[in-house]
Amino acid sequence: MEISLQVTDLAASYGPRTVFAQVSLRVERGEVLVVSGANGSGKSTFLRLLAGLQSPTAGSAHYHYAGEAWEPRSASHLIGWVAPDLALYRELSARENLRFFAKVRRVAIDDAAIDALLDEIGLGGRGDDRLAAYSSGMAHRLRYAYALLHRPPVLLLDEPTVTLDTRGAEVVDQVIARQRQHGIVVVATNDPRELRYADLLLQFGQP
Amino acid sequence: MQQPATLRLPALLAAAWAIFIKDLRSELRTRYAINALVLFAASAAVAVSLGVGFIGVRRSEEYLLIQSTLLWIALLFAALNGLSRGFVYEEETRTIAALRLAAPAIAVYLGKFLFNLALLVLLDTVTCLLFIIMVRVEVGSPLAFILVLSAGGLCLATATTILAAIIARASFKSALFAVLAFPLLVPPLIIAIQSTALALGNNALGVALPGVGTLLSYAVATFVASLMLFRFVWEA
């Protein structure tokens, strides 16, 4: 199904400080937009706006999917979001977390599919461990499982490989390659190695 | 792929139930709220029992009102201490963004409300048993007493659920809490205290029914208003 993202004159401010302004762009299916810039330049804020977790100061963003336009706030079913500040429930196991989020997202998924998803992000065999026992890298991998659970056409990745080992970074490569085939990806990063994902590059200035 | 967030009732209720079960499972593993509730209720009962006693006091109207007031003060403070934690815990552990992206707002409210209601049933039971045993509360009409407690508890659960949501999303938590809690909780508390005193002193069920009716009306009004307001609080 066709998917695109249209951003028009988007701006974000915190109090009197303007983080970015007048950002306009379009991302089509199969494309990866990389948002780059120094710490505090607004990369994460930009992704939070696209995820509908924050409201813009000015401008708009819309997803066009199946002939309809969706504002980010009403498009959570289209979006998978991975970020270092995305926390899942530490007192539950990975499997319990995924089962819970599948239920509230109204996604039919059985244990075999959860196992397959955990295998896909390199957590096979660790699904019954509680998150409290996970390392930061494992917790970051599980964020991918959370984001991919409903197979969304839009994947928003904030610092996609932070805390990941080499194998984890390879998993991210595979996730992005697969997502290109049926949707769009937006990556926020200040790691120059991750610029290689870019079909489109949005460079933010100094904070 | 997941379907868009429509407001079909069965899907909403299923999501709300999943949130309730998740909160229950988390609570049983962390004892985050239960410990606070039970300890507060036990401390209040012991303090009242040792401090006031009521041994040998004649069962006058004032005596019943004082017992009833002390019981509801213990319930109120234990509830405020424990029930706000459902939302505050999500905020503190930063799981709120994951929940916001995945669950419809109304389902979150309903799930948290159910969880608060379950905690309140536990709190009511523990506090009342402790008061009956330690403060020597004699109940004239047990059925009226249970009805008043249930209706008052329902008021507490509806009010504290929306209060907790507002507080969890606000920057000035403590100041906002006092400002919001006062008008929301004082009116039903006054009715609950007076109706409980009537239930303690009379054998007839009918004496407490007007109070129970008012409390249930208040709970329904607060619940409906919360359902309408919650989305704005949750997505703020």
Write the layout of secondary structure elements.
The complex is a heterodimer of chains A (207) and B (236).
Chain A: E1 3-14, E2 17-28, E3 32-36, H1 43-51, E4 58-65, E5 68-70, E6 79-82, H2 94-104, H3 111-120, H4 136-148, E7 154-158, H5 166-182, E8 184-189, E9 200-203
Parallel strand pairs in A: 3-8, 3-9, 6-7, 7-8
Antiparallel strand pairs in A: 1-2, 1-4, 4-5
Chain B: H1 9-30, H2 34-51, H3 61-83, H4 85-92, H5 96-102, H6 105-134, H7 142-169, H8 173-201, H9 209-234
Helix pairs in contact in B: 1-6, 2-3, 2-6, 3-6, 3-7, 3-8, 4-7, 6-7, 6-9, 7-8, 7-9, 8-9
Could you explain how this protein is built, in words?
Chain A is an alpha/beta fold. Chain A has a single domain, classed as P-loop containing nucleotide triphosphate hydrolases (Rossmann fold, 3-Layer(aba) Sandwich). Helices cover 29% and strands 29% of the residues of chain A. Chain A has a 5-stranded parallel sheet, with helices on both faces. The longest helix of chain A has 17 residues, at 166-182. Chain B is an all-alpha fold and 236 residues long. Chain B has one domain (10-234). The longest helix of chain B is centred in the middle third of the chain and has 30 residues, at 105-134. The model of chain B has no long low-confidence stretch (mean pLDDT 86). At the A-B interface, helix 2 of A face helix 1 and helix 5 of B. Chain A: This is Heme exporter protein CcmA.
Short description:
The complex is a heterodimer of chains A (207) and B (236). Chain A is α/β, with parallel strands linked by helices and 207 residues long. Chain A is 29% helix and 29% strand.
